[in-house]
Design brief:
Number of helices: 16
Shape: globular
Helix content: 25-40%
Structural class: alpha+beta
Radius of gyration: 24 Å
Number of strands: 23
Distance between the termini: 41 Å
Length: 571
Amino acid sequence: MNKILNKLYLKTEKGDSFLETENYLVDSNLKPKEELDEFAKKYFHLSPEEIFEIQNKITELHCQHEMNFQIKDPNGTYNKVVATPFQGFAPLPFSSVAKLVDSTTEPLIKLRQILQLIYSKKEPTIENYKNLGISNKDAVTIHKIVMDNIYYEPNLVNKKFENYPFLPLVGFDAAVSNLADPKCTFFEYNAGTPCGIEDQYQLYHHLKSLDLDFFKESKFDRDWDNSHFLLRKTIEDCANSWTNNLEGICVVISPGPYSPAHPEIAALAIRAKMPLVKMSDLYIDESGHVRFMSHRGEHPVVKGVYNRREESFFIYSQDLKIPLRSPFNREVNERLSKKLGLDLHPGILYSYIYDDKGKVESIEMDKDNKPVFQNLFDQISPDPKTGKIGNLIEAVWDKKFFISNIGGRILDDKRVFRIIDKTLNSKSFAHPPKGVTIDELEEKIDSSVVKIPDQSGGAGVLIGPCLSSLEKSQIIKEVKLQPDFYELQTLEKLAVIPTIQKKQNVLEFQTMPVDWRLIVFFDGNNKTNWSQHSCLVRTANFGDIKTNTSAGGGYALGLICLLYTSPSPRD
């Protein structure tokens, strides 16, 4: 057995670095773990060629099912779609996953309370935040984070949001190291449009389709998943609590057929038994209810939606001055602001004027000489009876409609996670890695991670030991210039999986660090839930520790053994 199987490998300027950690499949003596039944033993009886072939087959099957992913360039811009590589297996006991999910309950309650405050009051006061247990200094920080966030829409604020069931689905990225009893340490959470259920579900069934002895004869070959049911149940529960309407239906809307995520959402809608709709399938009737223009002649009331579009691309309204918002036009707006002498918001999409080469050269102005917002071409339909087009957000304000991802993006900031940790003050709750002070950073840079707090998907995550000497000195200077901006964390030594990689045309075992994105269902009564496939298990590139698929990482299959620790899954 390879002696590095219990080590986390990092590629550094000074050469290869190996950190002691745990391996999902072998014990400290590099023997297949007994508690994994026959799974690990039979897996290691396979030749490197056989394991490599399995990895490639599952990668290919996943790609054939359109489950590929967009990755970002070094500047954080999505630039191509790739087949995400499958790298191996990460088994955990049921009790470990249950502990991690349970630890997210109190942070989610606090996040929901903060969003209820932000969206129900135009100008929340320090006293409002103090009522949530948040200190003066941290209240000021949160207020600045919200005001600076390009996704924050002040025209959404309405007193009725004070009891809105925000955040029905949130992805928490668990930094799993101690496999038997993991600490409740999480890199971050994704409260915007987290994904993963369909990837995990399909990877599991791709594996089953290969009919491999090491899997089908193990205790992991038990499909007890009800993630799709829980998705629908959670959206329905939040819709019921908001609208007080037990009739109506809930639907799913995807980012659109040209998005790489569309096939995933289409498959998820089928398995969750929720209609997959287009914007034009919906309209608002004379009573203010949203209805689904089905082809059967019936137009049922829609009380809720699992929305996988960016929030503004669903609730956009010229009438209510709710524009489209995106981080990808920041540079264009900055350039035009200087060129035209305008004060353009960095995140708003305006009605741009292009030259003959397709470059933005100006902006359409209205009769009052103010910039015109970009029009949303895919909109809801007019009421067939009256011909009028309503506004979805007004249906929400009237408590007739629930949208799953309102407000999720504005608190996707690592500083907020740190503030919630300070407020709750208990390591039994989900919390970020241990912090590093600015004074410590220079001395501890090789065991630290520097994060740009409002970025996600691996962008803005600087792994100290993997930086060059020049990069280290530059980031230390930048942190000192903005001491309250960057998030400084201790490097977490993730547990690793064994994988077969080709090195100079030779197949050999290598280790890759793994984290678990746990998709946590959060209902209208502040209860969390999960199931077998409500997760996404990700690996970093070899020699790196960033596991984000958008940063070029891969997938592992998270295997949760129910039989060792619990007689039955959760409801």
